[in-house]
Design a protein that fits this description.
Helix content: under 10%
Structural class: mainly beta
Distance between the termini: 82 Å
Mean pLDDT: 85
């Protein structure tokens, strides 16, 4: 049976994780498979070449890549709620910046974003306007009387492209509530 050599790296063209720079039949890979364990989250690059019965190596195959991502997304910056003064009859705009390395956010799976106003029993659902890359934008028409105080923005269900779901977040916002028109 033919054997092969494998090289694996976190940089294109590299070989610091698994090197194919050893003599044929003397390196880590002398069979037709190899199992990699405990790799950190991040992008990886790999290539392989065959070794024939005369121990002559082929050319390296075109390099391929893959991503390992076991890290949950997080909120990158403080959540922005505009305008600063909210009251019945106004529209609130909420901007959320997510951070997820190395895979990036899955913007086909919208997070659930709600606003908890003081004196209102049920959180109000914020309607998504756009979700591109790591930026989520939503709006909410305030249609209930507001007694004053601060608000809480709740976020749950955000996930990255590798399926890692963000832990639910509740962030107190310094927005002011006013019962005046």
């Amino acid at each position: 049976a033919l054997t092969y050599q494998l090289r694996l790296s976190t940089t294109s063209g590299g070989h610091e994780i698994l090197s194919g720079a050893h003599a044929p039949l003397t390196g880590l890979v002398r069979n037709t498979s190899h199992q990699l364990k405990n790799l950190d989250s991040g992008p990886y690059f790999w290539s392989v070449r065959a070794i024939d019965h005369g121990l002559a190596p082929s050319h390296w195959a075109d390099e391929n890549g893959f991503i390992i991502d076991t890290i949950r997304p997080v909120i990158a910056e403080p959540i922005q709620v505009r305008p600063r003064t909210l009251r019945e009859g106004r529209r609130a705009t909420i901007l959320i910046q997510f951070d997820d390395a190395p895979a990036g956010m899955d913007n086909t799976a919208s997070p659930r974003v709600t606003l908890q106003l003081p004196g209102v029993n049920e959180p109000l659902t914020v309607v998504q306007i756009s979700y591109t890359g790591n930026t989520w934008l939503g709006e909410l028409d305030i249609n209930v009387p507001t007694p004053g105080g601060t608000i809480i923005v709740n976020i749950q269900g955000a996930r990255d492209l590798k399926g890692n779901e963000m832990l639910p977040v509740s962030e107190v916002q310094p927005a002011l509530l006013s019962s005046e028109n």
